[in-house]
Write a structure and sequence with these properties.
This protein is α/β, with parallel strands linked by helices and about 425 residues long. It has 3 domains: about 1-230, 2-enoyl-CoA Hydratase, Chain A, domain 1; about 235-365, no CATH class; about 370-429, OB fold (Dihydrolipoamide Acetyltransferase, E2P), CATH 2.40.50. It is about 50% helix and about 15% strand. It has helices at about 1-20, 35-50, 70-80, 100-105, 135-155, 160-170, 175-180, 190-200, 230-235, 240-260, 265-280, 285-305, 310-325, 340-365; strands at about 25-30, 55-60, 85-90, 95-100, 110-115, 120, 175, 185-190, 205, 210-215, 220-225, 380, 390-395, 395-400, 410-420, 425-429. Strands 8-5-3-2-1-11 form a 6-stranded parallel sheet. The radius of gyration is 36 Å and the shape is elongated. It starts with a helix and ends with a strand.
Length: about 425
């Protein structure tokens, strides 16, 4: 009886466990963007899923100019601790894995490049991720640290430490053939199927020294796209869009403060500004550039109130453009707004600000036509002698009036003031 029960349990376990084991697959993700917190989250989530699903391999299709050091190290730490082997595949042709992308690729269990791609150029830039320029001593320290880091990764992965170090210290970049001949990469492959066929059955030495034989034959390739949230965040992390959101946010809030109760400009301006602030948490913002943009708005306001003959306007437009160029402080072009976006947007926003300010000032300067204030400046007729008080006909009504001079009946009068008792103070017109 017990023997039958054991057999039944064994069969049940086989039914439950074997499909799970047999469900092993190859997970593929595509990173075609700079390395920042969003791409870091995307890669780490994919590796987490691979470990949970007992996947055979994770393939990261990589095309990146580099990115932030902190995000790069998060990705590398997760790759090194992964139970699932991870492969970096630089693709498509014309793509690259530069700077942070080079570090990530070297850290992977497998490093493959597509024909017509490049990798390397990993010298630390002269600006830290906080946006502050590093002095020579600090830059040397960062370079030595980066060189030691890449040597450790390359050595543990059995790659050419000399070429890896030269990519950091001398910012050298390598073609796929140079990298393959120099033992930096494991294979040059035209597509993922070629990678799978080549590494199927190969013995792999993991970062901790353990050996593992890859079983990739007939495995299903599952592509993992970014989540809707990640797609949205990576979209607004675009420096051009972040800059436009900042400008629209400032414009919306200015319009709301100038016209209290409009509501919609204030709501939209607040949303745009918060989205821009989120983007700036990803992008290395320079606060001097932001202050220059705010100074430009102040100069536009002063231009309307002070007759500077356009000097303040020119200064405001100059401050707006310079501040916009300085706003994202990084040598990586993909992290900076394009001049093709900055100049038209800065000029357009400058003109809009000036136009709105002029309209507001003109509205405040117009004479009031309603209430007591609307009577000031009106022309009327003296209905009696005013010595110094009398009656006047103004604005279709007869009013009590007083004057500092004698005004004869029938003379034209001009209203100077409306007193509290509705007595008009007038003078000859």
């Amino acid at each position: 009886m017990k023997s039958d029960m054991r057999k039944g349990l064994s069969i049940l376990l086989m039914i439950i466990v074997f499909p799970v084991v047999g469900s092993a697959s190859i997970l593929k993700i595509s990173v075609d963007a700079p390395i920042h917190p969003i791409t870091s989250e995307y890669i780490r989530d994919a590796i987490d899923r691979a470990d949970k699903e007992n996947a055979s391999l994770v393939i990261i299709t990589l095309n990146t100019p580099g990115g932030l050091d902190s995000s790069m190290r998060e990705i590398i730490e997760r790759i090194l601790s992964s139970k699932t082997p991870v492969a970096a595949y630089v693709s498509p042709s014309g793509g690259r894995a530069a700077s942070a992308g080079f570090f990530i690729s070297i850290a992977c269990d497998i490093f493959v490049m597509s024909p017509g791609t490049s990798t390397g150029a990993a010298h630390p830039v002269g600006v830290s991720i906080t946006g502050q320029t590093m002095d020579k001593t600090m830059e040397e320290k960062v370079t030595h640290d980066a060189a030691s880091y890449i040597k450790t990764l390359a050595e543990k992965r059995g790659r050419n430490t000399k070429l890896a170090e030269d990519a950091v210290r001398q910012s050298l970049s390598y073609t796929e053939q140079e990298a393959y001949k120099g033992n930096l990469i494991d294979l040059v492959a035209k597509d993922i199927r070629e990678i799978i066929d080549y590494f199927d059955g190969k013995r792999l030495v993991r970062f901790d020294g353990k050996e593992e034989v890859l079983d990739l034959k007939d495995e299903e390739i599952i592509e993992i796209p970014m989540t809707a949230r990640q797609k949205f965040l990576i979209t607004i992390a675009n420096p051009n869009l972040a800059y436009i959101l900042l400008m629209l946010g400032l414009l919306g809030l200015y319009f709301e403060f100038s016209n209290p109760g409009a509501i919609l400009p204030g709501v939209l301006g607040g949303i745009f500004l918060l989205l821009a602030i989120f983007s700036f948490q990803i992008l290395p913002i320079n606060y001097v550039g932001l202050l220059l943009i705010l100074l430009a708005i102040g100069l536009f306001i002063l231009e309307v109130k002070i007759q500077s003959y356009g000097i303040l306007t020119v200064g405001g437009i100059t401050a707006m453009i310079i501040g916009s160029i300085m706003l994202i402080d990084t040598p990586i072009p993909e992290f900076r707004p394009s001049l093709k976006v900055i100049i038209p947007v800065a000029l357009a926003l400058s003109l809009i600000f000036i136009f709105l300010i002029v309209i507001a000032i003109r509205a405040h300067m117009k004479r009031v036509f309603t209430g007591k204030e609307g009577l000031v400046g009106e022309i009327g007729i003296a209905k009696s002698d005013i010595k110094p008080e009398g009656k006047v006909f103004v604005h279709g009504e007869i009013w009590n009036a007083e004057a500092t001079e004698n005004i004869p009946k029938g003379a034209k009068v001009k209203v100077l003031e409306v007193k509290e008792n509705l007595m008009l103070k007038v003078t000859k017109s």
